[in-house]
Amino acid sequence: MRDLAIIKSEFVPDQKAVSKLQDFQEDPELFRYCALPQILKYVECFTGPNIMAMHTMLINKPPDAGKKTSRHPMHQDLHYFPFRPADRIVCSWTAMEKVNRQNGCLVVLPGTHTGTLLEHDYPEWEGGVNKMYHGVRGYNPHHPRVHLEMEKGDTVFFHPLLIHGSGMNLTQGFRKAISCHYASADCYYIDVKGTTQENIEKEVMEIAARKYAMGGEMALKDTWAFRGRLVQGERISL
Ligand SMILES: O=C(O)CCC(=O)C(=O)O
Description:
The protein has five helices and 14 strands. The protein is of the alpha+beta class. It has one domain (4-232): Jelly Rolls, CATH 2.60.120.620. It binds 2-oxoglutaric acid. 2-oxoglutaric acid binds next to strand 2 and strand 11. Residues 57, 59, 61, 72, 77, 106, 164, 166, 177 line the site of 2-oxoglutaric acid.
């Protein structure tokens, strides 16, 4: 993925052009992260012994080009997932360098994981917003916030209903983090028709149709079933 400010600029070389790698499950070196025993030890507390890695990301948050496009709006990750139950899904997010408020650390609203999945849509930001960066609607903007300042290698584990996002990167460096969403292999897929997730389904299916000439013959759950990888135990229903 490219940051909106980069897409609109002249040619930008090498890693500076890439703001996020998604779906690195086919890359043996990066995927080693998802199978680290020191991560799975904690993941297992949420998922149980049969563990699927469902969504992988390496986030290379670029220096903000002045349009505030390096921000990630507040959201709940469950908005993107057509599988349940939410309590059997967990994200691990590891800082690949020191992260703080200056370079756009994670910001979380503690306790919101006990709520429900809220409506999400693109925020109306003046400088625009990156593709698929939906923001949560109707949350309490006065809810206490915690900025997760972390050292290189520190890892945070969080629930898919936790409202979180990240601020602007006001430094000249690229803020790197690696993350994986795990789910219990016996989670089940749901049909998101008629729910608040219909808008993200539509967007994902449009991308699938455009990029891979798939669409009509494929359902949202298929896009997850073929990206998901077993990391421990037995593959059951996901
Ligand atoms: O690493 C970040 O800046 C936020 C990542 C995030 O919340 C996401 O991609 O869902």
